[in-house]
Automatic annotation (TrEMBL):
It holds the Pfam family COesterase. The keyword Hydrolase applies. It comes from Streptomyces nojiriensis. It is an enzyme of class 3 (hydrolase). This is Carboxylic ester hydrolase. Residues 44-523 form the Carboxylesterase type B domain. The keyword Hydrolase applies. Belongs to the type-B carboxylesterase/lipase family. Keywords: Hydrolase.
Length: 544
């Protein structure tokens, strides 16, 4: 091979050992512009909205409103219907407690990687959002709206993990998180009377429009919104890029963390077939019968959906969006290349060992053979599968077949489609910055590496809220906190300016076709040119 596919990286800029002091100099950070003062005397803040009056709370010097409804409860006749406007309320509504999370599978104690990703209480009446702001005033601050991920079946904007507190305080931003329908309640497609599907999308769109119409009352600027998300939430951000108002996008900037752009979004016919499988599991004949069943019964069927829809060597996703030609007409990545999405500033990235999240601790996959992995590699590389296997094997000294498989899955689903989007944006002269999160965790004997989701507590810089997450065990606190300070500051800078650069991080250039610069986020942070060049060229015959 003429190209070196090894994972050793040469940092073009001088490597900088990141430190917590990197927040210094970020606008709105400790050494940046002054932050708005909280309400005097700890009084309960109140805002007037078209829907009614809200009373929030002051927490840690920030003004916070929780459990704010942005759409009507999607229950009874509104189950599997697009999000509808909330009717409003009389008097003053209390907004000091989170609303319930969307119904989802739940296991006490969580899993061995992330721990808990969605916690009770659960309710179909879940279409609420939460706002953190330095002050409900007329400051017109930049706004960050966060959409959680979770494989389309789990997660919650009400989790402390995703608290907007750090962004609001350190960046002088207004931060918003939201809940939306998940699993069968958000992703089943029935095509009733030619109607669309993607009820999750209609929820998120309603929330985003609510933010544009109401965020000024919370001190935010409706014309300066950054929409961010991770995993399934990042795919949502891309899908929402096609929405517009007066011909313009609904948001100004986008952050896509580990978007699974390699997913093949099913057509209407394919989605109807998947819905038929679900109906068979539940024992219902049609959606009308499904509307009579309690949601715990609907959610419990997810377990059998995993069994019936899973394929060996692929990340299981029992519920998926649909190209319904109503709410979603194109692949989400394409919506960031043309139309209103083309003008959105974009920050995109992935972790180095994405697929370790789902496969590294799996005993059945640990027994995978080379022949099995080669058969899976043929799905991607065809006749070049053996060459690709060798390249992945050489990239990870001492690699087992399952290691090759994980790197292949991670590239198929996350890294290579992300690079492809950056390539196509750069070719059109559209702004895009790229990163790869490279810091491995020592948890579980180092088997996870830099797994899917590992960057999340670094982005939010709130490790105290992640005490239940096993995959953070053993991280060196000095390195952990230093990198978190740097990453968090870059995200704040991007939200405020459309550029992730800040002092004293190494210069982070835009991704361009000539250099293909990607920022490596690690204990020593620096830029890498064309870090996946070998695999990009190896895949070229089958690339879009």
């Amino acid at each position: 091979m003429t190209d070196d596919p090894s994972r050793r990286r040469i940092l073009r800029n001088t490597g900088v050992l990141t430190g917590a002091a990197l927040l210094t100099g970020v606008p709105g950070g400790p050494a940046g512009q002054a932050q708005a003062a909280p309400p005097a005397g700890g009084s309960s803040p109140v805002v007037e909205l078209p829907a009614g009056r809200l009373r929030g709370a002051v927490e840690g010097g920030l003004t916070v409103f929780k459990g704010v409804p942005y759409a009507a409860p999607p229950v009874e006749a509104l189950r599997w219907r697009p999000a509808q406007p909330h009717p409003g309320w009389t008097g003053t509504r209390d907004a000091t407690a989170f609303g319930p999370s969307a119904p989802q599978l739940y296991r006490e104690g969580g899993d061995a990687v992330l721990g808990t990703h969605g916690a009770p209480p659960f309710s179909e009446d879940c279409l609420t959002l939460n706002v953190w702001t330095p002050g409900a005033d007329d400051a017109r601050r930049p706004v960050l709206v966060w959409i959680h991920g979770g494989g389309f079946i789990s997660g919650s904007g009400s989790l402390p993990n995703y608290s907007g507190e750090t962004f609001a305080r350190n960046g002088d931003l207004v931060a918003v998180t939201l809940n939306y329908r998940l699993g069968p309640l958000g992703y089943l497609y029935f095509g009733e009377d030619g109607a669309g599907g993607n009820f999750w999308f209609t929820d998120q769109l309603a929330a985003l429009r609510w933010v544009r119409e109401n965020i000024a009352a919370f001190g935010g600027d409706p014309d300066d919104i950054t929409l961010a998300g991770q995993s399934g939430g990042a795919l949502s951000v891309a899908a929402l890029a096609g929405a517009r108002t007066a011909g313009r996008p609904l948001f100004r900037r986008a952050i896509l963390q580990s978007p699974p752009l390699g997913l093949q979004i099913p057509t209407r016919a394919e989605s109807l077939q998947r819905s038929a499988t679900y109906l068979d599991i539940v024992g219902a004949r049609n959606v009308a019968e499904l509307r009579t069943l309690p949601w715990p019964q609907l959610i419990a069927a997810t377990i059998e959906m995993f069994r019936r829809t899973g394929r060996w060597g692929y990340w299981s996703t029992p519920f998926l969006p649909v190209l319904d030609e109503v709410t979603l007409t194109r692949d989400p990545a394409d919506l960031l290349l043309a139309g209103p999405g083309a003008d959105i500033d974009l920050l995109i990235g992935w972790t180095r060992e994405e697929a370790a999240f789902a496969f590294a601790l799996s005993e059945p996959y640990a027994a995978a053979t080379k022949e099995q992995v080669l058969a899976r590699a043929r799905d991607t590389f065809g006749a070049r599968a053996a060459e690709a296997y060798t390249a992945y094997e050489e990239a990870r000294p001492g690699a087992r077949p399952v290691d090759v498989l994980m790197d292949l899955i991670g590239d198929d689903l996350f890294r290579m489609p992300g690079i492809d989007l950056a390539e196509r944006r750069a070719a059109r002269g559209r702004p895009v910055w790229a990163y790869q999160f490279d810091l491995p965790t020592p948890a579980h004997g180092g088997q996870l590496g830099a797994a899917h989701c590992l960057e999340l507590p670094f982005v939010f810089d709130n490790f105290d809220k992640w005490s239940q997450a096993p995959f953070l065990a053993g991280l060196n606190p000095r390195i952990r906190d230093g990198l978190a300070g740097a990453v968090h500051a870059s995200w704040i800078s991007f939200v405020r300016t459309g550029d992730p650069n800040h002092r004293p991080m190494p210069n982070w250039p835009r991704y361009e076709r000539g250099s293909r610069t990607t920022m490596s986020l690690d204990s020593v942070t620096g830029t890498v040119d064309d870090l996946a060049g070998y695999w990009r060229r190896l895949r070229r015959p089958t690339a879009r």
